[in-house]
Amino acid sequence: MQALPFPDPPLKDGFVLLRPWRRMDTQQRYEGFADGLCQRFSSPRIEPTTEADVAAAYERNEQERLAGEALNFAIVDAARPERVWGAMSVYDVDASNQRAAIGYWVASWERGRGVATRSLRLLARWSFARLNVERLELTCAPDNIASARVAERCGFVREGLLRSHLRFKNRRRDTVMFSLLPGELEQDR
Ligand SMILES: CC(C)(COP(=O)(O)OP(=O)(O)OC[C@H]1O[C@@H](n2cnc3c(N)ncnc32)[C@H](O)[C@@H]1OP(=O)(O)O)[C@@H](O)C(=O)NCCC(=O)NCCS
After folding, report:
1. Which of 27, 70, 142, 173 is a plausible cystine mate for 168, CB 3.0–4.6 Å?
2. Domains in the chain, start-ordered, CATH in brackets?
3. Ligand 1: which residue has its CA nearest to atom 29?
């Protein structure tokens, strides 16, 4: 497998900027992800995420990048790139099937300002152009209305419900599957 390159120059739109994580982000990364909604929708474990879990993620993220599986980004304030607003990843990169998935969270104090929507547009466009994918997938829990709105605003199409799709918080959980094909990206919905 080929290592995945980070975008150079970094993806940005004048409001958000997507850059690689830095060790000095650990506290902000932890504080953003420790919030109740992130734990509810983005952490499959029952046990709350700890700062040590977050500190351990950097090495795993780099291994995933070197293996050609995933790129993990910090979403930051484009005007002050040291300020972390959230996270976005392109993961499950499947080169042979030209397919990948995108996931994200935004810190509670930055929600509702278009941070996720803008970041998703940037990363989806780049993934089609540079990762040679022909299909992007986005999955969320059936009751994750905000995440579904982000997907739909970017043009993702709701394909259906995957019943008993994954193990989540020690139970089976259904998943809504969205997909985006080249040419479907919406800029201002
Ligand atoms: C999903 C999430 C990333 C959205 O981030 P965000 O930066 O606030 O998203 P945006 O501002 O770009 O857009 C949010 C959209 O969801 C809507 N929304 C937000 N909270 C909502 C709620 N409780 N119910 C219904 N819609 C909601 C907003 O109104 C907006 O849609 P609109 O433009 O049609 O009004 C954020 O809520 C989050 O981090 N949630 C916890 C983690 C998570 O669920 N990650 C995704 C896992 S699949």
Report:
1. 173
2. 11-133 (3.40.630.30)
3. 112
Cα-to-centroid distance, 96 and ligand 1 (Å): 32
First and final C-alpha spacing in the chain: 36
Q: Whose C-alpha lies nearest to ligand 1, atom 44? A: 41
Instruction: State the Cα torsion 102-122-56-148 to the nearest 10°.
Output: -40
153-179 pLDDT, tens digit each? 999 999 999 999 999 999 999 999 999
Q: How many CA atoms lie within 13 A of 17 on its CB side?
A: 16
Q: Give the CA-trace dihedral at 172, 33, 90, 8, to 10 degrees.
A: 180
Atom from ligand 1 closest to the CA of residue 107: 39
Separation of 117 CA from ligand 1 center, angstroms?
A: 9
Ligand 1: which residues within 6 Å by Cβ? 37-38, 41-42, 104-106, 111-117, 140, 144-147, 149-150, 153
One digit per residue, the tens of pLDDT, for the chain of length 189 reads 799 999 999 999 999 999 999 999 999 999 999 999 999 999 999 999 999 999 999 999 999 999 999 999 999 999 999 999 999 999 999 999 999 999 999 999 999 999 999 999 999 999 999 999 999 999 999 999 999 999 999 999 999 999 999 999 999 999 999 999 999 998 765
C-beta neighbour count of 34 within 10 angstroms: 18
